[in-house]
Every structure is written in structure tokens, then in C-alpha cells.
Amino acid sequence: MPKQRESGPTVPQDVVLSVRGLSIDYYTRRGPVHAVRDVSFDLKRGETLAIIGESGSGKTTLAVALIRLSPRSAKITQGQILYNGERKVLDIASLEDEELRRFRWSDCAMVFQAALNSFNPVLTIWDHFLDTARAHGSPSRAEVRARADELLGISALA
């Protein structure tokens, strides 16, 4: 009997991001702190998602977990984060380093609340694009410029 190929995770075609039963704990000296409990949602193509809640309710913990930028003390204790990209459905929580780097470079981004803590106001936006490109495998300057122009909807950067 031929061995069946294992299929990866699946999500409906119109769903870009599917979070299923996600729980996240912070591990402290006093024991675990349950920051996110059993969160599930689907984000369809063309939709916008707002995460709203009181201070300390787990919004930032959830957001940074979606792209695996959580601090070492935070652990996903259950659930899945599935991204339905052009190539295939990815289980973000289980990506290896190189695959995670490719995912962050080509498929996702995050703008943090305190943008001045993320962006150096002395650098031009072009310098920020180049720094990001270098951190992720450095495509050619021409490729970076073309992608920047596409993202910003302009013909050239100063």
C-alpha cells in the first residue's frame, strides 16, 4: 500500500490568517501568567482586524506572537497561527529560523505603537528600506527601490 503524503494545515481559500485556540503564557519566578487564552479568529482577504481591549488584556502579546517576536519568557502553550500565503499555508508557530525570516521578509510586517522607537528620525525612509533589506538577505538596490516604490505608490525616493 503506498504511503500517503502528509498534507499541511489547511484554511479556506479566502482566509489569509487563521488563529485557532491560541494560548500564551509568560513564565515568571512566581509561576506562569496566562496572558492570552484560547483566542480564535479568521481574517479574510480584504478585511481589516482591530484588536481592542483594556491595558494588560493581552493585545500586544497576541500581536507579537502572530509574527513570533515574543520575548523569551512568553511561550505559545496551545493553538495554531496559520498564514495562507501565495506559496502554501504556513504554521507560523512551527517555522524554522530561515523559513521564519523569509515569511517576515516577504509576507508580513508590523508597525509598532511607538513608531519613533522603531524608526530613526534622522534617516530617510529610503535608508530604512535598505536597512530592512540588508537584514533579510539584501536583494539588489534596484529590487529594493522597485519594492519601495510599489509599497509607497511613488515613482522615486529621495
Structural key phrases:
four-stranded antiparallel β-sheet, 27% strand, alpha+beta, globular, 2 domains, single chain, 158 residues, 5 helices
Offer a concise description of the structure.
This protein has 158 residues and is α+β, with helices and mostly antiparallel strands. It has two domains: 15-95, no CATH class; 116-152, no CATH class.
Sheet bearing the most strands, described?
4 strands, antiparallel
Distance between the termini: 63 Å
* Tally of structural domains: 2
Helix content: 25-40%
Number of strand segments: 4
Supply Rg. Answer: 18 Å
Total of DSSP H or I helical runs spanning 4+ residues: 5
- Widest sheet: strand ordering: 2-1-3-4
The topology string of helices and strands comes to: EEHEEHHHH
Assembly state (oligomeric)? single chain
Form type: globular
Averaged pLDDT: 83
Give a structural overview.
There is one protein chain. With 158 residues, the protein is of the alpha+beta class. It has 2 domains: 81 residues, no CATH class; 37 residues, no CATH class. The protein is built from 5 helices and 4 strands. It has a 4-stranded antiparallel sheet with strand order 2-1-3-4, covered by helices on one side. The chain starts with 14 loop residues before the first strand and ends in a 6-residue tail after the last helix.
